[in-house]
Amino acid sequence: MCGIIGYLGPRPAAPVLLESLRRLEYRGYDSSGVVVLSGEGAPVAIKAAGKVQSLLDRIDGEQILGKVGMGHTRWATHGSPTFENAHPHSDCGGRFFVIHNGIIENFAELRAELQAGGHVFRSETDTEVLPHLIEEYYEGDLVLAARRALRRLRGAYAVVILSSTDPDTLIGARLNAPLVVGVGADEWFLSSDLAAIIPYTKRALVLGEGDMAVLSPVGPVVTSIADGSESVPRVVRVEWDVLQAERGGYPSFMAKEMHEQPAALENALRGRLLSDGRVEFADWDIDPEQLRRFQRVQIVGAGSAHYAGLLAKYAIEDLSRIPTAVEVASEWRYRPQTVGADTLTVAISQSGETADTLAAARRAQEQGSYVLAISNVVGSTLALEADAMVNLHAGPEICVVATKTFLNQVAVSLLLAMRLAQVRSTADPGDLRRLAGAMRSVADAQQRLLQAELEMQPLGAWLAQHRSILYIGRGYNYPVALEAALKLKEVSYLHAEAYPAGELKHGPIALLDPGVPVVAFATESATREKVRSNIQEVSARLSPILAVVTEGDSSLDGLATHLVQVPRVPEMVAPMVNVLVGQLLAYHAAMSQGLDVDRPRNLAKSVTVE
Ligand code: GLU
């Protein structure tokens, strides 16, 4: 979720690190820092809150000497984007330095244990446990201490470690987060991203899960963190330019971010969805008693966040029977307020700066309601003003239109619904356990769908040949239809509308003719038979039908013009799979017209005006 760069070689490290941080800024930009081991091995660390430019201003051309160093640009997950929380982090003695990308799930217990042993922490980050652990285990062998410390971590990390005890060594390690070793002429790089090292070398070693690379002037040695056995990493050679590398080789950020969704989802669930099916939010500290007292839920959001809110409503009402209202923030903020101390207000905003959602949250607070923010940006205005924030953990999203942040809004909404059901004992624990299992299976299902992306290309191009497209769905597939239609409008500029399938005959059916296709989300659900009847109605009006069905379902074979089969998952989690079809169709509809999907006309990433 952030940018990591490490350097060991014959050149001065600082210019390489600073230049690379600029290239990594798209991965995280709320604070940054570097540390370089000077000639004598003394570490020089410089950090700054804000963009990489703030770090450059702070350094102000000053020469930092040393040929081993590392740099980080942060996308906060634990603790605000402040100077204190910027990486690198170090131990009490100031010898061991760490930069980290990811989330250490068990940081709270490790921190408590280390504090009990006398370690003093200077930041709120999960990362800081690692340098203290290394300090704890260090008995003269840095590699052994690092390996022991890494073995204690659960969650996701790509880390780089350097120490004044071993001025010729740089250690990289990864688990559930990317890290590559760049191989130059007698110089080595560690980076979360090929984009950073491409100006220096196009040859890299890809570390495997749970691998650790020890770099020294004689080259890298890669071993397993678990047992120390040596492993042979895969060597890659890329011919990308810097821009292609930033996009991970994808033609656009939208494509890259759609493909990042299985990983983003795993990040949203990590440490929250426990193996016994229970849900805990480390970042939402609320007394279960208070959760039991809420009589109503009020959700506010705009655009895709509003649609994620609709899914939240369905899940909350299904699992805990708490009456839940969902409103577009720009409307709700001017309505007479009906919330109060008995209401849990949930404000959903990717950026945490959406003006209307912010205003709605403030009004709810004025009425005495507890406000929970669901956002992708720690330290955003909404996050700071709300009573609590649950982080989407989707990582930076560069494409203007939401893909992985929408997905994670849905995932976090389901977690919220499960948490409410669990504390209020409104759902059978067995059902919740099965639902948890289903949530965990979604990433695989998404992966399979993404692998079949080529099939979506002609379908997107086909949609783009029409003047207007209707999307329909029922139940959990209705918000999916809304989001899919919005994606199409946003990136392909085609006119699209979404309706609950049962609403079609109350008006929109008048639009149907052979020139108006209907995209029907008809995957397995409690109302599948009803959707099938609605599709019959469409077919009778000669509209071409693109039906999204569960694999193995042949009931629409003669009826639909095109079929997209998606992996079988339970209805409540199906939106997290089905929405990918909507995204891919929109993407390919836009690409077939040669449009810029990352920066669609008239749109902005963060809507800070009313
Ligand atoms: N969890 C770490 C933090 O909040 C790392 C975040 C990142 O990947 O940038 O500092």
What's the helix count?
Answer: 20
Q: Mean pLDDT score, rounded?
A: 94
* DSSP strand content: 15-25%
Question: In the CATH classification, which architecture of the largest domain applies?
Answer: 4-Layer Sandwich
Q: Please, what is the CATH homologous superfamily of the largest domain?
A: Aminohydrolase, N-terminal nucleophile (Ntn) domain
How would a crystallographer describe the biggest sheet?
Answer: 8 strands, antiparallel
Tell me the radius of gyration.
25 Å
CATH class of the largest domain: Alpha Beta
Helix share of residues?
25-40%
Structural class comes to alpha/beta
N-to-C CA distance: 30 Å
Shape descriptor: globular
CATH topology annotation of the largest domain: Glutamine Phosphoribosylpyrophosphate, subunit 1, domain 1
What does this structure look like?
This protein is an alpha/beta fold. It has three domains: 3-238, Glutamine Phosphoribosylpyrophosphate, subunit 1, domain 1, CATH 3.60.20; 253-447, Rossmann fold; 453-591, Glucose-6-phosphate isomerase like protein, domain 1 (Rossmann fold, 3-Layer(aba) Sandwich), CATH 3.40.50. The chain contains 20 helices and 24 strands. 53% of the residues are buried. The mean pLDDT is 94. Glutamic acid is lined by residues 1-2, 28, 74-79, 85, 100-103, 125-127.
